Amino acid sequence: MWFDEPELERGGYQFFLFQENTPCWVDSFAAALEGGYPKLPSAPPEVLENLRNCQPHLIQDRAWVLMYYSMVLSQVSNKDSDRHSIKKKLRRNIWLTLHDARLLLEPSELHITALTLLACNAEEFTTPSLCWMLAATACRMLQALGINQKRLDPETRQRRKMMFWHLNLLDKGLSIIFGRPPTFHRAMAKEIGMPSLEQLMASQPRGMSSGAPRLFGTHYFHQRLLLTQVMGDVWNCLYEDAEPDVQRIERVSRDVDGWYQRARTVLDASAISEKPFLEPAGAASIDIALHCLDFLHHYIQVMLYRAYPGTRSNCVMSSKAMLRVLEHLVSDGDEPYMLSVWQLLCCPFTPFLELFSEILSNGQGASEGNQETLATMQLLLTYLHTMSPSHTLATKLERIAEVFVRQAEAVIDPQAIKSIY
User: Fold this and answer.
1) 104-138 residue pLDDT tens
2) pTM of the entire predicted model
3) Residue 289, class by beta-carbon neighbours within 10 Å (0-12 exposed, 13-18 middle, 19+ buried)?
4) CB-hemisphere CA count at 13 Å for 163?
5) Taking every annotated instance into account, which residue ranges of this chain make up the domain Xylanolytic transcriptional activator regulatory (predicted)?
6) First-to-last CA distance in the chain?
7) How do the domains of the chain map onto residue ranges?
């Protein structure tokens, strides 16, 4: 994944160029900037021209180069998963771009966008720790720039306010997954204030088609932002308490349920009103967004319930419900409301391991309940296998999950242990 100094020296500190692929890649890059959410800056004509001419070294602000190669690596991973040589060269180009220390040290909105895109999209380059570091650096850059200062003009304040809330969404999500403290303190959210629906509507992508669910999308992201307020309490409950506090767990769990019920009420109503006017792809995007909401709700409940042995049955029930959602999160194209790759691939392992632990510890052998639990565990294998052509990480995780499934089969049927070795 990484390149040490000798390997970079052998490459001559020069970018690998891809003359045959470049025209298509640059067009896809420009389209992604137009259709990305939150609204992304448009690349200047001279940047696109230098990229088309295979002259990335002439682009002064390397943030554009970093965004370009990050997006291209993600696209190659999705469409050309067997082309390992191209991926390796693209990873090297990203690493070479990061040799410009300004990307990590000089706060700017463009640098924040580039680091965020790299953290979220190029999982074949980043690791969980690196993803966390990139996201944390982006958050600190925004703090250094300022968000609500009076010296800023209204347009800049509004733009940075939206940037804060989307970074806060990423920050809180990664903190739960990786067990790291959030970079943004909860007091910042109260100080900055939640964006209105009108402001969220204005931040819709410029390139969004007329058949896309604009009103639903506004409500969806508003509900996701509201969830960040609850997730701060979830993190404190999971990682700050020295011992599990059952009363606090139950209280936070009720808050999560309350958010989910309100969110579903709003989004179901929005879906009913907007779906009849959408193209099939837009209607399918709404369905995926609703399943993403279910996924997040079940995941947070699993994280809370697993912290206290007295809620074991609830943990198992939520784990099964979450794994049953996975088949609905597979999409052939880019979805505007899809979760990050780290959420899609890492989060399901938590309920999966909880079910594995349940089979090992309940002493029920080949009971009907254990058979059902095993069948639910196997849903993760199917999901990861489906995701493997798009994500190398899914292939690695599939192999790991298969070992656990075989061990669970051996517990249910001891004769099956012979097939493991």
Assistant:
1) 999 999 999 999 999 988 788 888 889 999 999 99
2) 0.90
3) buried
4) 29
5) 131-201
6) 30
7) 1-126, 348-421
- CA dist list (Å): 213 to 187, 203, 219, 354: 32, 14, 10, 36
From CA 241, how far away is CA 25, in angstroms rounded?
48
Cis peptide before 38 (omega within 30 of 0): yes
Q: Which token pair is 66?
A: 């970093």
In Å, how far are 135, 154, 173, 195, 243 from 216, measured between CA atoms? 27, 27, 22, 16, 41
Distance, in Å, from the CA atom of 270 to the CA atom of 140, rounded to the nearest integer, reads 35
State which amino acid sits at residue 380.
L
> Which 8-state DSSP code applies to residue 54?
T
CA 148 to chain centre: 27
**Residue 1 tokens, joined:** 């994944």
> Where do runs of H (alpha helix) occur along 146-245?
154-178, 186-192, 197-202, 214-235
| Burial track 45-59 (b if 16+ CB lie within 10 A, e otherwise) | eebbebbeeeebeeb
